[in-house]
Sequence to fold (844 residues):
Amino acid sequence: MARAMMQSPLPSPSKPLLLPLYFSPTIATTILVSSTPLRLLLSLHCPSKPNSSFCCHRILPALHSASAFSGALSSSLRSTATAFFSTSDNQLNLGDGSETREWPLQDFYSLRRDVETISERLEEIRASAGLKQLEEDLAGLERAVADSSFWDDRVRAQQTLLTLSDVKDRIKLLTEFKTQAEDAETIVKLTEEMDTIDGALLEEATSIVRELGKSLDRFELTQLLSGPYDKEGAVVYITAGAGGTDAQDWADMLLRMYVRWGEKQQYKTRVVEKSLGEEAGIKSATVEIEGQYAYGYLSGEKGTHRIVRQSPFNAKGLRQTSFSGVEVMPLLPEESTGIEIPEEELDISFSRAGGKGGQNVNKVETAVRITHIPTGVTVRCTEERSQLANKIKALSRLKAKLLVIAEEQRASEIKQIRGDAVKAEWGQQIRNYVFHPYKLVKDVRSGFETSDVVSVMDGELDPFIRAYLKYKYTTTSMPAVGLK
Amino acid sequence: MRLAYHRPSLSLLFPIFHANPKRSISNFSVSLLPTSPKPQIPLFLRPPTYSSTISELRKWRKWAKTLASSVGSKFSESDNGPDSTLLLRELNWLVEDAVETHHLLSSHGEDDVEVKLRLKLEDLYNLWKQRIEDRRPFQYIVGCEHWRDLVLSVEDGVLIPRPETELIVDLVGDAIRENEELKEGLWADLGTGSGAIAIGIGRILRSCGRVVATDLSPVAVAVASYNIQRYNLQDKIGMKLGSWFEPLKDVEGELAGLVSNPPYIPSEDISGLQAEVGKHEPILALDGGASGMDDLLHLCRGAASMLKPGGFFAFETNGEKQCRILVDYMQSETKGSFRDLEIVSDLAGKQRFVTGFRSR
Fold:
């Protein structure tokens, strides 16, 4: 999805293709008068990747004959020109290649409508994204970078560079969108003016419109992700609720769902820790999903997920309800957390299960649990190979968690986090997955639902994510505040 | 009859071998060039000169996983050993250490892609079999232990550093932060085993701080020396073969700090320990006599004369009872010698360490 946002593989506009086509009618008519426009025609023809066989086919004979002596030149060009115009009478141009199809007028009109719609939508987006403001910001940022004292404050300099690259990318994207929309508009206008229907070109316009639509969807989504940590990668922590094997199996299904989602988005997805249930499933698992905006997308997954299905572990196949909890934290690089938490506020414990410990025991139980006493926020880290390494990682995760909670509560300092509010949020049920007696997945907050349970469990979460983000955007009135 | 004797100075040479004082002088024989046991190279440091196909490796891993899962809670119920979750975690780490490109295992490529291994595939089978059937410790199988921010070589004959002991380095850190002059003195790690504590302390002392590490076992001396060299601390940390304070006679009263994780398990408990410990780790490093406190008390008795005024000490014990006995002992038997005696808990909440300072 938006993972590819910044390097969005937008379909390459076929500009070189269009120019010769656009100019050729006029040139063809004037060619008989003077030879200079012919040279113009020659230089215009440079389709690197001719998508439309129409263009190549028509221009090449003109050029080919241009290399012949001028006597035959004018006559052959005249014939090409007439050939050019003769085909224009044909409403149903079957095209030259086998890949073009018939284009009845109806379809052309609806394509024209689609192009109009998308152009309007694009203008709205460019306006709401504040293109003008972005360009002003860019100028300001570039001035700052050019300043001689820019590198005096390294940390701020890094931040500014990041912001600069972000603004540049946005402007580039919005400009690219505009170019694409213009390409599609041009094709439509051309088709109208020439009164000819070229299947291949119109196919191209259709695909431009389609791709642009998807790109705009993605862009709108990232506009909704304006929180300070939304751009970061994510750490997802899944815990099976009470209910034994059924709940543990459910947690395992959720684990698979998120891993599949991460893979489909082309994020680097890694299950860093997994604690197996006795009979089946998992007791808990931690997944690290690296990539831009992973946290922004997944932050809405926080809460309790409920499943209703026929239990595969019960001989009678009774209908079972199970719960699993999902927590999501941003994957912050160590340097960026920057906050210090005093030792006295932390309760660090090490899960050496029972017994005398020390020399008596040799088990790879280096798991560390840290609780932030004032807020009650707890994190556990088990996957590193030494106690100290787990402690460092747990501390980093704790800081990330506190930063997120502070942001959600609009607290400007960790000190201001209300501990009781933290606890209350954890048990919130956010989504129901019903497998039996009917099939339905419904998000409690946005109301979005689908009966394609299989796809959802295979990682198709985008519709839910989009719906939740839109819901969140419309229900919050204040913009997100970053932490100092 | 001559005793090989070397006067220690601040530039401690390594390795220096001393006479074994536990033997009577008449039996004593001097060997000027004792054959030091050659330390084994940890698995993760061996060159990946072997290879296997992905499918063969996957086959092994599947077999290993099944074997680990079949254990269930058998070990933990019989002798507080590891359960399948821990064994599967160890298996992941074994793969990390043994296979050069282990991330390929989870990819969905073709089966006959070649992977480079640091040992023969059949050795992987043997090692895992040893793990599950013989209960050979995981750390001996991979030849190393991750401890604090270090990776230490360990092998049969050397005690595997415990996570609890990681705290001793933090306790030393706290002590030297409050008493700056301790950063530059000579510290001693008695019964160093793999050299873990010595290296941990060596890294936090200032440039003119020094550490002398001692152990009774030649294997430990060899392994500790190897680890010290790997962390390039051979100019800062010196090794001595010998029993407790014996090799340190001429720095008596000069030590800035004294730390130890001595054997502290009561003899009668040894047979009931989990098999990985009781049947494979050196009893010399575990057995503390009938009460478990033989060596701890010996260390307490010697500490007063070894430490300089204001010097710091930290000892690890078997728990609350031993901690209290030590503190009582120090307060009553060595009156006035120590101040600020403290009992410190480990991260599991057990009272694990006794610390204090030599009075001025």
